DNA sequence: ATCGTCATTTGT
DNA sequence: CAAATGACGATC
């Protein structure tokens, strides 16, 4: 039975015995590249039949190929030497894709170098074939990927999988276009609003490495500012890579860049393009036909020629963390690339992360920020609304349970012919509550706002329901309609909120933007624009008001970054509002005494980032310290930790159970954190890599997830 | 997956 | 004491 299956060609026995199979050698002998047909045939005939393998001659020069194999095992994370056969001498160029026999299997790999000699004591195997001579892994890209793998304690092959799109033969066959011409030097006068802004761009223009952390002013046309920076680099013949969190941002930055440096000089790299187009655009970058790359996180590896500038916008957005091993972060990869290539880095956003703050405080980067005078002309007026607020007197607004100031701010915006933005918690993020008996929506006894489950827990017990507007917990619910004490969860999304609010403003159209459908822009006319964080449309001419009603949900999260994240989302929405001088107002539903609210009122993200970083130092949390998480079954986690030599400053926290439990009540998965002082981060990564290597070599079945600088810590 | 190495078992 | 078998680890 089994004998009826034809063995694949490459499974034929190697040297001897094939004298009895005269045909074995001929079928694949015709290599299209050999071109000269008659000579090729004569040569093949001259070689007497037996397997071609034994007959292979090493290449006349540089016969050794260093090959990185595409196997994600940590103990095989190094190049292996192969012999280049005579026939592949021309094709086997550094950086090309190859196929090699590795441990009896044919595997894909990359040829990273041709050399004269090998350290290997035994006989080298030959390259099986060259998949294509396109040098997709040149030394520069190899170095980037190796460095990223080392930083995260991961393997090169894992990083290569993130950095190189799958090959598409048809796209590869198309000829490379002409390199785009150098664009004109752009007008960068808009950067004079920021201290050290012009100085930073001068450095980029002079090809001197400079690093900047930039907080954009409210209302800033930041895609255009980024395009100007990219154009500065491009105008002096350097490349630029700009990474933004999502597709919507990418569209804006891409348009701005195309207008600034020309359609042909910029390319958008984005997931979900389709294999051919994805590879085509990536090749255009590799071949140097475009100078400016705009993309989402995978573009952080874009092999742009002669890079002069790397940019990450809104580095606090968790989309910048790649969810695939070894979980690299855009900001950190771009820092590494900028450093390695002596080019510049720009970390921009409306808000500032604790990580960016550390770059500034350590002197690694300069703060590019506006002074208070500029800020005063740009910022909207911010009014916090805490627990004690007056519900609007207007009858319809009372029905919608809207605070009076919020109602008034929205009304003024509409009166001025402008839209108003309402930011509400993400749908499903927080379920709303209704009576378990009669299904009447459950309302707060204090302000009549809707009750919801905040999520998270205190001392192991789930948090009690709380009001969506004022945040007051409800510990003894009783239905107003039927007297039942039972509660049931209902989904209250942006849609429902929109309907409720809409009734308060008859005649004003209500638009929603959220997970289901994200609007890019809304016209500059009266409208109530209800959206979840991150989905705020840009309004033509700016919003007249923004109502930030999700503070209690954002701030209530059990997360080290809750405050930082809240300010980031508020500022992203608030930046779309007109300046106070033009009547722009922000109403934020949170206590005025909170520092995060103060930071919004004063529009001072740097101050808040300084506070955050100070707290992280006190707690010994990132980015003040470096952390790694080790996650898996209890046995697997224990085996890694037991095998991990701790650096001097090393400390293990946990392990703690992770959510799911088995029938016996034991955690099926655990997570431990390993903490070291920042200077030992590199050592920790190497030690974790080695521990993973020993584990892989033992062929351990249970997977362990090792992550450096994980975002979620609590 | 496959191959070589080295230790152990089995057959004289 | 030599040949056969098996466990293990490297994998070019």
UniProtKB/TrEMBL annotation:
InterPro entries, sorted: P-loop_NTPase, PriA, PriA_3primeBD, PriA_3primeBD_sf
Entry's cofactor comment: Binds 2 zinc ions per subunit.
Binding residue positions for Zn(2+) 2: 444, 447, 467, 470
Binding site for Zn(2+) 1: 435, 438, 479, 482
Record keywords, A-Z: ATP-binding, DNA replication, DNA-binding, Metal-binding, Nucleotide-binding, Primosome, Zinc
Compositional bias per record (Low complexity), positions renumbered to this chain: 31-43
Primosomal protein N' 3' DNA-binding domain ranges (all copies): 66-165
Pfam families: PriA_3primeBD
Region named Disordered: 1-61
Signal peptide: none
Source organism, top-level taxon: Bacteria
Cofactor dependency: Zn(2+)
Subunit structure: Component of the replication restart primosome.
Function: Initiates the restart of stalled replication forks, which reloads the replicative helicase on sites other than the origin of replication. Recognizes and binds to abandoned replication forks and remodels them to uncover a helicase loading site. Promotes assembly of the primosome at these replication forks.
Record family assignment: Belongs to the helicase family. PriA subfamily.
Record-given protein name: Probable replication restart protein PriA
């Amino acid at each position: 039975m089994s004998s009826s299956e034809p063995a694949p060609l490459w499974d034929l026995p190697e040297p001897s015995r094939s004298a009895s199979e005269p045909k074995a050698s001929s079928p694949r002998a015709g290599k299209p590249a050999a071109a000269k047909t008659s000579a090729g045939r004569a040569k093949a005939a001259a070689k007497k039949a037996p397997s071609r393998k034994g007959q292979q001659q090493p290449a006349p020069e540089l016969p050794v190929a260093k090959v990185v194999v595409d196997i994600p095992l940590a103990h095989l994370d190094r190049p292996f030497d192969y012999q280049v056969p005579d026939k592949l001498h021309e094709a086997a160029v550094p950086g090309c894709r190859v196929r090699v026999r590795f441990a009896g299997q044919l595997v894909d790999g990359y040829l990273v170098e041709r050399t004269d000699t090998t350290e290997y004591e035994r006989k080298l195997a030959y390259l099986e074939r060259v998949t294509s001579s396109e040098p997709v892994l040149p030394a520069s890209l190899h170095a980037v990927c190796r460095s990223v793998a080392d930083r995260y304690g991961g393997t090169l092959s894992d990083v290569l999988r993130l950095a190189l799109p799958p090959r598409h033969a048809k796209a590869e066959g198309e000829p490379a276009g002409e390199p785009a011409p150098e664009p004109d030097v752009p007008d960068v006068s808009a950067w004079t609003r920021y201290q050290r802004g012009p100085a930073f761009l001068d450095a980029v223009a002079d090809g001197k490495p400079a690093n900047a952390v930039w907080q954009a002013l409210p209302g800033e046309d930041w895609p255009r500012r980024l395009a100007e920076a990219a154009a500065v680099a491009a105008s002096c013949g350097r490349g630029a890579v700009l990474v933004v969190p999502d597709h919507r941002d990418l569209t804006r930055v891409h348009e701005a860049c195309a207008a600034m440096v020309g359609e042909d000089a910029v390319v958008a790299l984005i997931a979900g393009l389709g294999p051919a187009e994805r590879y085509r655009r990536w090749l255009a970058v590799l071949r140097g036909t475009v100078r400016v790359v705009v993309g989402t996180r995978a573009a952080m590896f874009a092999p742009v020629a002669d890079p002069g500038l790397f940019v990450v916008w809104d580095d606090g957005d968790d989309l910048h963390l790649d969810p695939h091993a070894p979980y690299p972060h855009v900001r950190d990869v771009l820092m590494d690339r900028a450093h390695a290539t002596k080019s510049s880095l720009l970390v921009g956003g409306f808000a500032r992360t604790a990580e960016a703050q550390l770059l500034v405080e350590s002197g690694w980067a300069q703060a590019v920020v506006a002074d208070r005078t500029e800020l005063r002309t740009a910022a909207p007026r911010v009014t916090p609304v805490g627990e004690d607020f007056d519900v609007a007197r207007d009858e319809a607004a009372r029905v919608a349970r809207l605070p009076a100031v919020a109602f008034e701010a929205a009304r003024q915006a509409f009166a001025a012919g402008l839209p108003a933005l309402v930011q509400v918690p993400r749908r499903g993020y927080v379920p709303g509550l209704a009576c378990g008996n009669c299904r009447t929506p459950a309302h707060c006894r204090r302000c009549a706002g809707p009750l919801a489950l905040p999520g998270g827990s205190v001392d192991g017990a789930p948090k009690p329901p709380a009001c969506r507007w004022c945040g007051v917990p409800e510990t003894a619910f009783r239905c107003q309609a039927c007297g039942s004490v039972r509660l049931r969860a209902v989904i209250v999304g942006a849609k429902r909120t929109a309907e409720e609010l809409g009734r308060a403003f008859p005649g004003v159209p209500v638009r929603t933007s959220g997970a289901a459908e994200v609007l890019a822009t809304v016209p500059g006319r009266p409208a109530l624009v209800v959206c979840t964080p991150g989905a705020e449309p840009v309004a033509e001419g700016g919003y007249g008001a923004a109502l930030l009603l999700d503070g209690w949900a954002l701030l209530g999260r059990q997360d080290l970054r809750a405050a930082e994240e809240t300010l980031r989302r508020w500022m992203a929405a608030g930046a779309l509002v007109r300046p106070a001088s033009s009547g722009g107002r922000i109403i934020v539903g949170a206590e005025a005494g909170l520092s995060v609210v103060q930071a919004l009122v004063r529009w001072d993200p740097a101050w808040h980032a300084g506070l955050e970083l100070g707290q992280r130092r006190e707690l010994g949390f990132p980015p003040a310290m470096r952390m790694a998480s080790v996650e898996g079954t209890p046995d697997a986690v224990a085996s890694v930790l037991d095998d991990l030599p701790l650096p001097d400053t090393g400390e293990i926290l946990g392990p703690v159970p992770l959510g799911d439990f088995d029938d016996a009540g034991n955690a099926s998965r655990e997570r431990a954190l390993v903490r070291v002082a920042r200077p030992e981060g590199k050592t920790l990564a190497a030690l974790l890599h080695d521990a993973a290597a020993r584990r892989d070599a033992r062929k351990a079945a249970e997977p362990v997830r090792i992550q450096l600088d994980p975002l979620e810590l609590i």
